[in-house]
Amino acid sequence: MFKGGYKGKILFVDLSKKEAKVHELSEEEAYKYIGGSGLGALYLNRLSGPETDPLGSDNPLIFMTGPLTGTKVPLSGRHQVITRSPLTGILGEADAGGYWGAMLKRAGFDGVIVAGASEKPVYLWVHDGSVEIRDASHIWGLDTYEADEAIRKETDSKMVAACIGPAGEKRVLIAGIMHDGRDARAAARCGVGAVMGSKSLKAIAVYGEEPISVADEDGLNKSLKEMGPIIVKEGKGLGKYGTAGAIVTIEKVGDLPVKNWVEGKFEGVEKISGQKMVESILTGRFYCASCLVGCGRKVRVASGRYAPVDGAGPEYESLAMLGALNLVDNLEALAKATELCNRYGLDTISTGAVIGFAIEAFERGLLTEEDTNGVKLKWGDPDIVIRLVEEIGEAKGLGRLLGLGVKRISEKLGGLACELAIHVKGLEFPAHDPRAYNSLGLAYATSNRGACHLQGFTHVFERSLTMPDLGFDEVQDRFGIEGKGELVAKLQDLMCLYDSLKICKFTLFAGVKLRHILQWFNLVTGWGVDLVHFMKTGERIFNLKRMYNVRMGISRKDDTLPPRILTLKRGVGGAADNLPPLNYMLADYYRYRGWDEFGIPTVEKLEELGLTKEFQ
Amino acid sequence: MFKGGYKGKILFVDLSKKEAKVHELSEEEAYKYIGGSGLGALYLNRLSGPETDPLGSDNPLIFMTGPLTGTKVPLSGRHQVITRSPLTGILGEADAGGYWGAMLKRAGFDGVIVAGASEKPVYLWVHDGSVEIRDASHIWGLDTYEADEAIRKETDSKMVAACIGPAGEKRVLIAGIMHDGRDARAAARCGVGAVMGSKSLKAIAVYGEEPISVADEDGLNKSLKEMGPIIVKEGKGLGKYGTAGAIVTIEKVGDLPVKNWVEGKFEGVEKISGQKMVESILTGRFYCASCLVGCGRKVRVASGRYAPVDGAGPEYESLAMLGALNLVDNLEALAKATELCNRYGLDTISTGAVIGFAIEAFERGLLTEEDTNGVKLKWGDPDIVIRLVEEIGEAKGLGRLLGLGVKRISEKLGGLACELAIHVKGLEFPAHDPRAYNSLGLAYATSNRGACHLQGFTHVFERSLTMPDLGFDEVQDRFGIEGKGELVAKLQDLMCLYDSLKICKFTLFAGVKLRHILQWFNLVTGWGVDLVHFMKTGERIFNLKRMYNVRMGISRKDDTLPPRILTLKRGVGGAADNLPPLNYMLADYYRYRGWDEFGIPTVEKLEELGLTKEFQ
Fold it and tell me: Any idea what the CATH number is for the domain that residue A262 is in?
């Protein structure tokens, strides 16, 4: 039996059959795949395949916590959502902070797997070890803030809901799943909200009061007593200014996406910084479960053109993708656009990306006023961004097209439009530029969900961090070529662990070292694993996800970057003339990973990782 | 009026209407586009567009000589065939040596444009300034050697024919057009033979005795008297051993394609060398019109498994692509396979490529015995190569699939098969490896007909040659990164001139410098242009062709290399670990060319080159 960290139970709900079961969590599988992303991918691989229609009833939608979720371990208030992505057709996953994961465990479950699809709108009310499938007809159509309130009234004032908005309901392919109501914690990427919508599942509300056991309570308390003050101190700046506190620096080094990835500088950057937010619209901070940093923003815009805004404020990614990418530097407008994304339940990253794509396509004559209902799309116009967010969220007008994501839009438009679509494997780039950090290029090309900075998180080791435990004693050369294969592979394996435990990657900015993570994992689970074993587990999870994608047809040909990122030197800014040497890095990466020429894990590698039986 | 070099007449035949006209050649256009590839592309751009079905009757098939063709200028016995390629969908062109071009001019024409399509098989009999459209029902189905003989009997013993074989008749997409009967001079690339077949045009037989005037006969004679002995001396090795005389060196530096571009060495290379051919099956040499080198091979295999073979012998490209690529080192078998390609009218390069693709696909389980009619495809088996050549030539069995070219085959098979398809823009790689010469990678990626070493011919300047006239005083670094954009752009412009004049690129190996080419051009035409003007003309032609492709939807996204070439280090041989730095080179190249980010000539560039009105 589990010594700590796990509830040992997975809730399995079949919406077609209107029935729910509780599955025992296999300790052997938990030991091999930990939780969150790892166990989620394991279940996904067993429950779906190339024949699965991502928006069909047979696609499982998997919510998974990890052993650290809901414990006292700092910054552990996270959970993972895994499914076959309707946006990319491959493994789709997204994660969120907030309180939902911790509350699910208190309700008695490590995870929820939703299979099938309901004919009529429903929501799940999971509480105290049980579940009810409830009618949601009356809340269908509400935005996520409204729906959260409505469900709260019908359930428990202390419940936490995972919820889709109108975008998910309408199966917009860039729709996410929102949590924590007005605090808007988003599991937004890969179109997971559209999958939830395709099941007519409006929300999963959870509440419980069960304690979460820890194998070595004293040991954990001792470690936290020591580390607590360090985290508070090291995380101070991040807590004070939020993720956007770094945006000015990010712009300076050439890492910020500007004008759909064409420009290397953005004059208006200071107007949308975390510092500016503190001086203007910030009303408070949001702390996820067990967090000691509090980087989440609460904002209010009470008057003026963009009022009212009241609730979660824009993160760095939202400001960069809705803002800088579109040359918009009006903070109140971006707060509004972000709130609209939150309410509709849209991924702010992909939403910003499709808007930037649309503006450039219009500028180049690839979209016309016929497509836009007479609106002249142009750079730097906050009202156009807001209008397009609304059209995407409501799947109307040009939004019907834009909600498909840049890959599908560009394929529909054809020809030159493909040159403007900045994605990998169908997932829009997040707001970090691989021309500023070479390892990012390799990480984007090989990340299992498509373009993603979080599944490698390597660029921070080319910026300021080191990790001696993995052999990175010094900050890596961001414009270098050598060693990137190893850097990216190791960090991807490590991030698989973070995504499975689950624990926030911002611990890296708050003085938490790899050895602490490992220590906490052992104190919580009582498993006593060493670093080599731990990293091998990360490698297993990464390879499991890769193999799922191989089943979907992914190989080397897909491990690439958009032509613009490979060939366009921006000419100005902190990374004016750098281009990522992708083909060299990819060759090194495959070799380091022990994959074959095509980027496919070899039979020997699968054997070594104990993955053989999952792919027979 | 033309002072020399040109006949001033283009024969225009409409096979649908069964009528022929003679068009005056515009001196202004000849001055701007010279002839061959340049004028051919000009006409193609006017006569076709994105709506043109490459195998429909509206696709023009254009045969063009240049001002030097048929004159005493050494190695000038060449002509160009231009059409919209059914293999690639973009500009298709191929050129051949031999006597056809020279004879066409003696018959009174600089070129023949074939439009429309005949209902029944026909051939054209062009002689002494006139043309007859003749029934070809009785020769339809004959191979090119047989058809040449049959037409000769019906026309003139001294006629020269451009002719398709069964492959072209059956619209095999890798079919070429053969010339000079058993001497088998091939305009083979881009599926030009399939276009001829789609018009039910079996052959164009030409004969005439008109002299070709030269503006400054005395000047030309004087220059040739001086250069003749130099060419004979410098070209001696090439004449003695043929193009395959270099194959051992080519293998040594890692430039030879082995096992579908996977291996870096080929043990059997000496068995298929030009030297070995001299010692064994060589019976004589073939000189194209006005040639002083005679690199063409005549061979005979009178007995044994692969007899009879009698006629043109295999060139380097045929030995490398049918042989080394498939691990076949049996010279007699390769002579047989080459003769079969010649008789069927197949491109030996693309034929070797699709066979290598098929063997690898079979080995990896992507093709099965069901596809091969029970035959186990394997490396190094000459009989399998020969069998597949026959199936492709006759469009039967597996050959029906293979005749589509590697791009289409891989798309049909899907998934991993795309990783094995070594092409650019649908044209199979010729037998030089971009991992051995970086500039080749850029040249392949940007050549206007798809992967081609001849339209840049840059690798010879990274091997042994210099060209001080263009600023290349030293042999370039084949593994270098800097300067490749300029090298490739300048050489592509120059090769446009060679392909338009027309003159053989092997003059470069025979002591002929750029200044001689320019001198002869001026002596023949009397136009007195300088080097700057001359090179600008080459740039105009290159940009004209690029713009035609832009009309077809080509942009930066298509200027790429197959994943295998970008990422697979072969680990052994003379270029064991090099990978072409394509994205860097491409960025430099676009900048040097004055193209925009998407690889599209700017409005200013078109204006500068006088191309604006062609693209309005």
Answer: 1.10.569.10
